[in-house]
UniProtKB/TrEMBL annotation:
Protein's UniProt keywords contain Nucleus: no
Cellular compartment(s): Golgi apparatus membrane
Natural source organism: Amphiprion ocellaris
UniProt keyword Manganese, yes or no: yes
Pathway(s) where this gene product acts: Protein modification; protein glycosylation
Gene designation: B4GALT7
Galactosyltransferase C-terminal domain segment(s): 177-251
Gene Ontology MF terms in the entry: metal ion binding; xylosylprotein 4-beta-galactosyltransferase activity
Name recorded for this polypeptide: Beta-1,4-galactosyltransferase
GO BP terms in the entry: carbohydrate metabolic process; glycosaminoglycan biosynthetic process; proteoglycan biosynthetic process
GO CC terms, sorted: Golgi cisterna membrane; Golgi membrane
Amino acid sequence: MMYSSRRKPVLYFKEERRFLSGKCTVYKLFGLCMVLVLVSLLWLQLSCSGDMSTMTPEDPRVHQQQPPPPCPADGQASAAEDLSWGPHKLALVVPFRERFEELLVFVPFMHTFLNKKKIRHKILIINQVDHYRFNRASLINVGYLESGNDTDYLAMHDVDLLPLNEALDYGFPEDGPFHVASPELHPLYHYKTYVGGILLLTKKHYHMCNGMSNRFWGWGREDDEFYRRLRKAELQLFRPHGIDTGYKTFLHIHDPAWRKRDQKRVAAQKQEQFKVDPEGGLTNLRYRVDSRQELSISGAPCTIINTKLECDQSLTPWCLLG
């Protein structure tokens, strides 16, 4: 017997023909589907229950909620809480202008060096942004005034001079100014009255000297005048001893061919550079902080203080060239 194409699917359900025959066929089909669904759900529930009962807490399929990891700060004392770091804090004052390649090396190097020695510190980059000639002494004066009440001693520190010997002392100079870059160790300057490069002194002692003279525009001579201030204030100068690395104690990273220093002497500056400034210093410093920025260089924090100095050209006409 031949069947039309419409009837072929019915042949596959020949055994169910009677069940599907007659009236209410749609309702019977719906009821059958519901029975199959209920049976499937019951079987799934029983199988899952059996699997769970055979699993142990060590089974990797079992997810156990773990307690959150402890906060790192809970078990580690900060430098401010660690008494081995001592009670003092250093303001590392760096007079600066357009020496960014050196700054990128200096800040992370000094931060690591001082941390190894457990010296509390903050690095202040006093960046001169006015149109006058560079004035290292005035910028150090600004660093002293802007260093905040949380520091009690200064390091007058050149940006191009890195200490290589970990035996060098950067601690609190209670007895008097401590010249880290002494003439016996500095790679370039070896005369006895030299106090440049790196000099540590308490804020109290710096104030006793009235800071540094503001008359030195251009490069050099401000350190020599400051040496006279130290003597006038009757402060004993100290220098390192027991350092056996000689002139290799520091790395001087300045490139004179790339960064030429302003060594010009104009007008009366040639004569005035050798004179003592008896009244100038912190008392007649004139400046304005243009902006202050907190930066991190390779993970080392520092503060950039963009500073505009003021110049009385009737007193120091050599603050400008040309």
